[in-house]
Amino acid sequence: MSEEDLDRWTQEGQNREMYLSTSCSSFEMLDPHDPIISRLATHLFKKTNDYLQGEMSAGQDHYNLLEEINRLTITKYTDLRNLTVNLSKTLSEYNEMYNILIKPLLLQIDDIDAQVSQFEINAYRLDNYTKQLKARFKELEEK
């Protein structure tokens, strides 16, 4: 019911002289009713219905939004789970490759370093010993 219809009915009701029952709020079948009040009540019920439909529609929209957020969250967590599984698999492969290929080479490098250190110590000892021999040889030559 539009506002124009409501205004028109209100004006028609004021222009006509109608018999009103002593109880305008009575809605019994045989009692005459004020047509303006009936129309206003109908308009009120329609507007109330529209309001409640809007509220239910808003609730449904919120529910749909939450469903969409949940779907996106599930997708995101699934992607993250797949990423962590792949990272774990790759890390396991790299650890295995380290233990098979790199660790033995590092152990060889450590062994070579230890041997070089031992050669260096022996070289210093030999150098000191040759210096001592040279000093004794010069002593003996001078005598």
UniProtKB/TrEMBL annotation:
GO molecular function terms attached to this record: gamma-tubulin binding
An annotated GO BP: endosomal transport
A cellular-component GO term for this protein: BORC complex
Top-rank lineage group of the source organism: Eukaryota
Family indicated by similarity: Belongs to the BLOC1S2 family.
Name the UniProt record assigns to this protein: Biogenesis of lysosome-related organelles complex 1 subunit 2
Species annotation: Danaus plexippus plexippus
Taxonomic lineage from the root: Eukaryota, Metazoa, Ecdysozoa, Arthropoda, Hexapoda
